[in-house]
Amino acid sequence: MTNENIQTRRPDGTHRVVITGVGAVTPAGVGVEALWDKLMSGETCIAPIERFDTSDYEVHIAAEVRDFDGTEHGLSKKEARRFERFVQYAIVAADEALEQSGLQVTDENRDRIAVVFGTGIGGIDELQKSFSTLEEKGPKRVNPLFIPTMIGNIAAGNLAIRYGMRGECLNVVTACATGAHCIGTALRDIRHGYIDAALVGGTEESVSPICIAGFTNLSALTRAEDPTQASLPFDARRGGFVAGEGAGALVIESLESALARGAQPIAEITGFGSTGDAYHMTAPDPEATAITAAMAAALAEGGFTAADLGHLNAHGTGTPANDATESKALYGLVGEGAAEVPVTSIKGTTGHMLGAAGAVEAIVCALSVARDAVPPTAGFAEPAEDCPVTVVTEAKTDYPQKVALSTSLGFGGHNAALAFSPYQN
Fold it and tell me: Is residue 402 over pLDDT 70?
């Protein structure tokens, strides 16, 4: 079939949107394939925290990006010295995604390429360090680049500067749903013709003293000491999430744009749903009404029904409230057939990457439909009565799907659901 015969528009006249490049920096290492290999083998990347002394802490484990040196992955020494970790992670992931995509930024297209790249927390290391400097050494010793170093939008800003992308430049912040909402925001802009392509994703540097202390005192983190028995999504033994960090980046563009430059789509983003719980500052609505609506909207946008759902890549944090809520949401979406839908969470492997989680999980979900495979949930062993879903315990292969969903839930009641399908002419 020639490109001229390929339908690049949806039935409503809007643009089809495809993924042409992906990149990641995760606790599994640098690169998407390093992550995919760890996930498919059911391994965990959680270990004792190395970045700081946890002797006085109740929590001692996390999923860190270990041995990361930005200068080994394309950053200059000046960039590695000046940029906070969340910015460095974003750049390295974005470099990988752009290389795979083959998207070239030129004078002719730069105004039609956006950057929508978020972080839930931003430069927390610089924030903590500068507060200490202020208190110990006085105001004149505070880093003059303190503000532009730590503000959350600076990852998106530096990405736009690096590649010369002059379309809109946004940092959508919805806590742990940040990455997914960044993708969804750009998806809608491409659908309706405001831009042709976008570099999207999320990034986080959340394994830090203040974050671990804060989440611990919120009773959000597990106190488990065994890394293999700590992040337990949907498991009866689950007792909180494990902090993770890193970045996920995707190049998404209209199918028309991709075909015009000879790019090979990885998968198609067929739907997006976004809702708010209007319920509680940190807890999800136990009725799961809003997240169910987001999931239904994502399927409907692609013309799918709940019966078409191949699997759910769940937010699956391993907290009692989240996993029970998502289980109820799946039943609200599918009905009794929910028990037939495979459910996976990558957080058994990566921990909870917060603002980066939705982007990394979107990459994994897209690869799942592209590769006819679903990775297992590392650590899962004991089904929980309040989570009556079918958790993937061994990698599924030779498993073609029409559509899969990736869900993200953030503090404040922010819900996002993205639908991915295999690319078909």
Answer: yes
